[in-house]
Write a structure and sequence with these properties.
Length: 339
């Protein structure tokens, strides 16, 4: 809050205890105080949910993590041409090298403004990605690309015969009773939605859910700190996917991203921690879990409105630094509580 954030929401859980707090305001115009159960667009935290549904496909024997899926990608008919064999594991770990449609959406200030308010379908967004070169030298290297998530959403729809939102409801939201989590409802006018902001040519603009839609498949999830902690506890507590699938998720090298989560430094038990990370310019969210799902800590920050990267190249660096500060704070809290 000392850095002029609009609001901060946080919830921490440990065996036998829970703490939550809200700081700041929901809306800079009304100045209504933020509440602990306010909802926020969690952006790429949705990737972790997508990964769970994809790993359930693997559990059901419908697809393999490491078999080539080039035919599936080319079958979308959007111009994607993988230069070498691409696997599901690579899509889930952002190592496919697939170009990101966001590179075209936000190339200039005008594109940023118009792009933020476009509701592209997954196919339309991947068609944009298909106009960019997909180079073989990038395959196998970590390279953040929103296109991976859209492709995963389409793969889920093809195998399940349902819409992506319905799949998340069936696999995660309904079984866990995440009653404050939405994936396909328009919530921009909901009274309990925390607002995020950016600055465009000196004018404050409300991001709402439009900015977040461009960072997640069809569209992004809106949730609460409590629901996200419920999700992470269920995932790492072994209640969502098989033990074998969870072991695959945990295989990553510490410090890397794989199968929808980041693997991080050990807690006091010596086991690594895992976190999901989401955010664009108007929100930053980190959800941190112990390896066994017994310790959870989630925080969202709605930062002070800042110019787009086109106007101020340092904005993304500042936002990434904020995410690192959030992660550091959550780890320190867990370290104090652990054991």
């Amino acid at each position: 809050m000392a850095q002029d954030a609009v609001a901060v929401l946080a919830q921490v859980r440990w065996p036998g205890g829970e703490w939550s707090k809200a700081y700041g305001v929901r809306d800079l115009d009304t100045r209504q105080p933020a509440q602990r159960q306010d909802r926020v667009p969690v952006s790429s935290v949705t990737k972790t949910m997508t990964a769970v549904s994809v790993l359930k496909l693997v559990d059901d024997g419908l697809i393999s993590l490491d078999a080539p899926i080039n035919g599936l990608l080319e079958g979308f008919g959007v111009g994607l041409k993988p230069p070498v064999p691409i696997t599901l594991r690579q899509l889930l770990s952002d190592t496919s090298g697939m170009p990101s449609y966001g590179d075209l959406m936000f190339r200039g200030v005008d594109d940023f403004v118009s792009g933020s308010n476009q509701e592209l379908t997954a196919l339309e967004a991947l068609r944009l990605a298909g106009t960019l070169p997909w180079e073989s030298r990038t395959v196998g290297l970590f390279q953040y690309s929103d296109s991976n998530n859209l492709a995963l959403g389409l793969i889920l729809e093809r195998f399940r015969g349902k819409t992506y939102p319905q799949i998340l409801r069936d696999d995660i939201i309904n079984p866990l009773g995440l009653s404050h989590t939405s994936v396909d409802k328009e919530v921009s006018d909901a009274p309990d939605l925390l607002k995020g902001y950016v600055s465009i040519e000196g004018k404050r603009v409300t991001g709402d859910t439009a900015l977040e839609r461009l960072g997640s498949p069809m569209p992004g999830v809106v949730s609460t700190m409590s629901d996200i902690n419920d999700f992470m506890a269920a995932l790492f507590g072994g209640r969502l996917i098989s033990a074998g699938a969870l072991a695959e998720m945990k295989k990553a090298v510490i410090g890397s991203f794989a199968l929808g989560v980041y693997k991080w430094s050990p807690d006091c038990s010596g086991a690594p921690r895992f976190f999901a990370k989401g955010g664009f310019l108007d929100f930053r969210t980190i959800a941190l879990s112990s390896s066994d799902g017994r310790y959870e800590a989630t925080m969202t920050v709605s930062p002070a409105p800042e110019p787009s990267p086109r106007q101020s190249p340092g904005t993304l660096y500042e936002r990434d630094l904020m995410s690192s500060q959030i992660l550091s704070a959550l780890m320190e809290v867990q370290d104090r509580l652990c054991g």
